[in-house]
Write a structure and sequence with these properties.
- This protein has 233 residues and is of the alpha/beta class.
- It is built from 9 helices and 10 strands.
- The strands form 2 sheets. A 7-stranded mixed sheet has the order 4-5-6-7-8-9-10.
- Strand 9, helix 9 and strand 10 form a beta-alpha-beta unit.
- Bound molecules: zinc ion (2 copies).
- The site of one zinc ion has 6 residues, from helix 2.
């Protein structure tokens, strides 16, 4: 499991929806200490004795919360093996202590995840190259954010270099990554105030010069079911 911002009950409910029980989980990978990512991790990990992987900076930020949870430190570029999956953390620009995102592979298929980054970097573009599927943050539409009722300081934080990815920046990242194997792109981490699924979908679709890649958007309420990366279905 990658991050967990929900309480125990809601996490159990969402796992059950895709036919998974907590006992099936071999580990939880944490990206950074913001509540929407780590808020539920340690309670869940403690309850079900699931080991957790996180960067040293993230570990320092959550130290009070992880008593009696097996925590493993991970770092940029050093792969972790959990079961038959190899997971590689990579550093991203975001306003947390030591934020990372992950690329996962079973040796055949490769999934790249990127949320919570304020800008594109050569490092993240390289890390996400050659994936079969990408989950890409489409946090906000720049115009909607500029016109939103959020206070100026919050607008600046979200739109800043260590904030969140706009549809445009995500599209730029998608345009720049190696897409030779790419079959699926999923827009994620959409703001309910400052974005719409239609705008995110349009931006990602425009960045692709092919209709061979399936583009979809994850919504917070429903999420999505299993997707077979080999077939794209
Ligand atoms: Zn977040
Ligand atoms: Zn964050």
């Amino acid at each position: 499991m990658l991050d967990c911002g929900f309480g125990i009950r809601e996490t159990e409910r969402r796992l059950a929806k895709v036919g998974v029980t907590p006992g099936d989980l071999a580990g939880i990978l944490v990206t950074h200490e913001h509540k929407d990512h780590v808020g539920g991790v340690f309670k869940f990990a403690r309850r079900y004795r699931i080991p957790v992987w996180l960067s040293f900076g993230t570990y320092q930020a959550v130290q009070g919360e992880c008593d009696s949870v097996a925590c493993h430190i991970c770092r940029d570029g050093e792969s972790i093996r959990i079961g038959n999956l190899q997971l590689t953390p990579y550093t991203v620009p975001h306003d947390a202590r030591e934020p990372v995102q992950y690329v996962a592979t079973d040796g055949h298929m490769r999934l790249g995840v990127l949320t919570d980054a304020g800008q594109s970097t050569p490092h993240l573009v390289a890390a996400l190259g050659g994936c079969d599927a990408l989950v890409l943050e489409c946090n906000h539409d720049r115009q909607m954010l500029a016109n939103s009722t959020y206070p100026p300081s919050l607008r600046q934080r979200i739109g800043g270099a260590y904030g969140h990815l706009s549809n445009d920046t995500s599209a730029e990242i998608l345009a720049n990554v190696d897409k030779s194997r790419l079959k699926i792109v999923i827009g994620a981490h959409l703001s309910q105030q400052n974005n719409t699924p239609e705008l995110a979908l349009a931006a990602l679709t425009d960045a692709l010069d092919t209709s061979q890649v399936r583009v979809m958007v994850a919504c917070q309420e429903e999420g999505f079911g299993w997707i077979d990366l080999a077939t794209g279905e």
